[in-house]
Amino acid sequence: xxxxxxxxxEALIAAGCIFVRQGKGDHEIWFSPITRRNVTxxxxxxxxxxxxxxxxxxxxxKMF
Length: 64
Fold this sequence. Notes:
Strand content: 15-25%
Mean pLDDT: 96
Largest sheet: 3 strands, antiparallel
Structural class: alpha+beta
Number of domains: 1
Low-confidence stretches: none
Helix content: 25-40%
Oligomer: single chain
């Protein structure tokens, strides 16, 4: 599991995002009620820029 995945996952859950399904490889599909779009975090997330980009896609502020 990636270095940032757990923190990003907890932030998505706290924001009311809903797990939709498993994507290809290490990716998951989540629905963000803030942006009303799907977000695809990578379970192997190792880079803070990727983590912040995922949060941005979900309509959340940067954390890293």
